[in-house]
Amino acid sequence: MHLQQRINAFVKLGDFLSQFSNEVIQKKNTIEHNELFFEGFKHQLKLAEENNGWFSRENMAFAISGWASSLTFENLNKWLTPYNISTNKPKMVAIIMAGNIPLVGFHDFLSVLISGHHALIKQSSNDKYLLPYLAKYLEYAEPEFKGTIHFTEKKLENFEAVIATGSNNTARYFEYYFQGKPSIIRNNRNSVAVLNGQETLEDMQALSEDIFRYYGLGCRNVSKLYVPKNYNFDLFFQGIYHWHPIIEKAKYANNYDYNKAVYLMSEFDMLENGFLMIKEDTSAVSPIATVFYEYYDNYSQLKSKLEQEKASIQCIVSNGFIKNEIAFGVTQKPQLWDYADDVDSIEFLLGI
User: Fold this and answer.
1) Are 138 and 109 in contact (CB under 8 A)?
2) I need a labelling partner for 337 at 20 to 30 A (CA). Which of 106, 125, 269, 348 fits?
3) What per-residue confidence (pLDDT) applies to 118?
């Protein structure tokens, strides 16, 4: 199968997904194989929502919208042009996926197949409905994909390389278990925002998207703020207020109530507005419905600190702080070439 065939198939998949990229699903008459797959995917979305209380229709539509926008000829060609993709001997690549946000493992799935390899996929039980159905659509869009995509719930066997994502504990297990195999092993990361006190209300409104999207469960979600001494949080709270309906979601509200009770019983100082708590804390990993903050004295010291902690940081959100910073509001809209942990998975796959 030529690279262009694979690109064409994923573009068709992107067109198919575009029908589901809003909370209100809209069927299009121009989509190939729609009569076979449209109603079925609606059912998979329903099953995914019932299986995982964090997979709201809104968040699934947001994730799908991102992939529908990414899977275009323009984006795929821009992504792949720098590489010399000519895989004459496909390898079986095992992919162990997380399940914290909808379709979180799709980039690995795409990367393995677009580079010409075969995929052996072990999904999280938290996100098990959407991808197998999309893989089946892909096989109809390009029949030569048949036999190249395998899903398993059993022990992984007969693979030649692995891409695995998990917690810090499981990552250590992966490193031991997969030693001797070419691998990309990912563990827990979080994202931080550096504020300077000159931000606008619009900046804070955009930052709220980085905090609350997917209930804060993604590695690209901002869970920690770095602020100058004597920082006034009033504008921050104004900017995030439009997210207040999030407290109506039962799982989020339960976490909010529990963590608030813990902080109050422990007599921790915190600020809160009825749906988010902020607490001064040196940790980078905050519980759901909480964002930690830490004061800094100057940019130079903060840059040194974050450089030392870069192995646990996915994104740095700021305006004019650092070279590879992410703008406010776009952490959950990565491009195809924005690799997790800054590890180029295409380069890895072409080298195995």
Assistant:
1) no
2) 125
3) 97
